[in-house]
Amino acid sequence: MLFTDDRTRTREMFREAFRKLRAGEALEPLEKQVATLVEEHPEYHALISGTEDVLDKDFTAEDGSENPFLHLGLHLALREQVGTDRPRGIRDITRSLLLKHGDGHAVEHMMLPLLGDMLWTAQRQGVAPDEASYLERLRQLL
Predict the structure, then answer these.
(1) C-alpha gyration radius of the chain
(2) Does residue 25 fall inside a structural domain?
(3) What span, in angstroms and rounded, lies between the C-alpha atoms of 38 and 76?
(4) Exposure pattern of 25-44 as b/e (b: 16+ CB <10 Å)?
(5) How many domains does the chain fold into?
């Protein structure tokens, strides 16, 4: 259910996974990943577990609000990239960053803007993401 174009359904999945975690209910593997990410971001707890109006909320730079669902989704995407080593080399870059900085969550936060930029550029230009450029930018973090 996570990989859908339906923003509302995706957001509901985040909310439900976090609700189930807090209630001590059984979680599917993807739900566990999502709930763990939400748990790692206490700044989002009230919003995600709050009223349902968050399902339709537009988060814009103009109003100064960060989109927590986008942020958490980028974390999931990055973890998937590292887990599958796609693009090839990202796992080694991540390991090197972890050795240098020691904090996995902080390392992800260093990498997320680059992932977001790559995806935004590809979408805006209507082309496939430029993995070589992305990897080079990640290497510059070392």
Answers:
(1) 16
(2) yes
(3) 11
(4) eebeeebebbbebbeeeeeb
(5) 1
Domain that holds residue 22: 1-59
Q: Using one digit for the tens of pLDDT, what is the confidence trace for 66-87?
A: 899 999 999 999 999 999 999 9
- Token pair in block for residue 141: 């973090």
Q: Are 51 and 34 in contact (CB under 8 A)?
A: no
Given a contact cutoff of 8 angstroms between Cβ atoms, the answer to whether 79 and 61 are in contact is no
Cα torsion 87, 140, 119, 57 to 10°: value is 130
Give domain status of residue 54, yes or no. Answer: yes
Q: Is 34 within the bounds of a domain?
A: yes
Residue 90 belongs to some domain of the structure? no
pTM: 0.89
